[in-house]
TrEMBL record:
Annotated signal sequence range: none
NCBIfam families associated with the record: holA (TIGR01128)
Biased amino acid composition, Low complexity: 362-373
A Pfam entry, by short name: DNA_pol3_delta
Species lineage: Bacteria, Pseudomonadati, Pseudomonadota, Betaproteobacteria, Burkholderiales
Name of the protein this chain belongs to: DNA polymerase III subunit delta
Domain DNA polymerase III delta N-terminal intervals: 20-131
Length: 373
């Protein structure tokens, strides 16, 4: 059966299933779910533990042997199988189906997988596993939900933010600093628990304690661009630059999004359903909800101009001439990162012509200045 993460505690209180499949890319939440299952298993007498990791040349017979054998000391055992790739192959698929068909009361099996696409979730081996036990999908905490998630975690350790606008500002401050990194958020919340007693936390206390722990993700930059969140877009570009990310990689990510938008825009104009175009272009997760508003903001002409700017930026970041010979009006800004901001703004805020930010100090000459928003 399928089980939501928020229902796991109630499920475990009623008793353990013989098999669990935990899948998803949110590592902190997956780890916590597995820890909770392990703790319940130990309390139920599953004290012998075997761990298998599927790599090239993995011997599936060893897994089946462990799942069917008794412990040397007569203890009930927990067998953990980790499949980092999410693809067991034909031999593995057959072994997993055999494993699902031979659930043993003295053996509890826990299988961990990354995020699975829809086709894999409908595969025979995954269906056999979920039918024989419990499939626990770990959904990511989206950025809009992160302040509430932080508030719940603070409450679990006996702390809370101030009521009203100050509290909302404090939760938003933490969410902004960790930039979607749940492990970093977890560490900051634990730090607040060590620094301050139970009770209400002021914005000033949180601001003093929380460091800028964001590890900016090139691909989350696209979410800010599609959402039209100019402040976040500017902050992420500055963060990526400060962390030494290659400008050519950032350019590639932004250009891929512009090309996707242009393909979908042209497809809609040709009469194709948006839902079909979204699937064809592999747009999923938060981007799937953001793509519609972004398409309504930007024109086909603006996207074509953005690709022309991207071509000039590509030459610039590779150390070649960025502009069109004899036409300096088409030259990108002298600083490639300002050009990347201008390119992303064609999608984030196309109705407003953003002024080119003034030149900022080169890397190493001090912290990068904020772009005007």
């Amino acid at each position: 059966m399928q089980l939501r993460l928020d229902a796991l505690e109630a499920h475990l209180a009623k008793g353990l299933a013989g098999l669990y499949v935990v899948y998803g890319d949110e590592h902190l939440l997956a780890q916590e779910a597995c820890d909770r299952i392990r703790a319940t298993a130990r309390a139920a007498g599953f004290t012998d533990r075997s761990v298998f990791t599927v790599e090239r040349g993995f011997d599936w017979s060893s897994l089946l042997g462990a799942s069917q054998s008794m412990s040397l000391f007569g203890d009930r055992q927990l067998v953990e199988l980790r499949i980092p790739s999410g693809k067991p192959g034909k031999e593995g698929a057959d072994a997993l189906k055999a494993l699902a068909a031979a659930v043993n009361d003295d053996v509890l099996t826990m299988i961990t997988l990354p995020r699975l696409d829809a086709a894999t979730q409908k595969s025979a081996w995954f269906t056999a596993l979920s039918d024989a036990g419990v499939a626990l999908k770990i959904d990511p905490v989206e950025r809009a939900q992160l302040p509430n998630w932080v508030g719940q975690r603070l409450a679990a350790q006996g702390q809370r933010v101030a009521a009203g606008e100050e509290g909302r500002r404090a939760l938003a401050f933490i969410a902004e600093r960790v930039e979607g990194n749940l492990l970093a958020a977890h560490q900051e919340i634990q730090k607040l628990g060590l620094l301050y007693p139970a009770g209400s936390l002021s914005f000033e206390q949180i601001q003093d304690a929380v460091l800028n722990v964001a590890r900016y993700d090139v691909f989350k930059l696209n979410e800010a661009m599609l959402a039209g969140d100019v402040g976040r877009l500017s902050r992420m570009l500055d963060g990526l630059r400060g962390e030494g990310e290659a400008a050519v990689l950032v350019l590639w990510a932004v250009v891929e999004e512009v090309r996707t938008l242009l393909r979908i825009k042209r497809g809609v104009a040709a009469g194709k359903p948006l839902a079909m175009l979204v699937r064809e272009n592999r747009v999923w997760g938060p981007r799937e909800r953001l793509i519609g508003p972004a398409l309504s903001r930007v024109t086909e002409s603006a996207l074509e101009k953005a690709l022309a700017l991207a071509a000039r930026l590509d030459r610039q970041v590779k150390g070649l001439s960025g502009g069109t010979p004899g036409n300096h009006r088409n030259d990108p800004p002298p600083d490639p990162w300002d050009g990347l901001f201008e390119l992303a703004m064609t999608v984030a805020a196309p109705a407003k012509v953003a002024p080119v930010p003034p030149p900022r100090p080169r890397a190493g000459a001090g912290a990068p200045a904020r772009r005007p928003v």
